Amino acid sequence: MTKLDIPALKSQLLEQRSSLVAQLNTLRGGNLTRAEASAEHFSSREDSPAQTTTEKDLEFALDAHETAELGAVEAALKRIESGTYGECTDCGTHIAPARLQATPDAARCIPCQEKAERA
Prior knowledge:
- By secondary structure, the protein is mainly alpha-helical.
- The chain contains 5 helices and no strands.
- Helix 1 runs antiparallel to helix 3 (49-82).
- The longest helix is centred in the middle third of the chain and has 34 residues, at 49-82.
């Protein structure tokens, strides 16, 4: 990977981080925690308990997914700063530039990612 690729990918990661933070703030209702936002959102609902529970579960799942994605982006930005971006965190080989173009927050090469997903 050339040095010229890294600034573009870093910019993409920074944009992704900003978008995720905005999505989480919207989902959570600002600076509230997950539980506070859910309690506030569902406190005066007239829906059935089953429907309310399903909607809560969906909101928690979306929040957990976006939080995990934000963590992956933050980790990629730290790897850029430390000079290890583009190296597989499991085996140390170079991650294919095409993979990083498609998924800038990728921490593993494809074989290691496949192994991690099977485990």
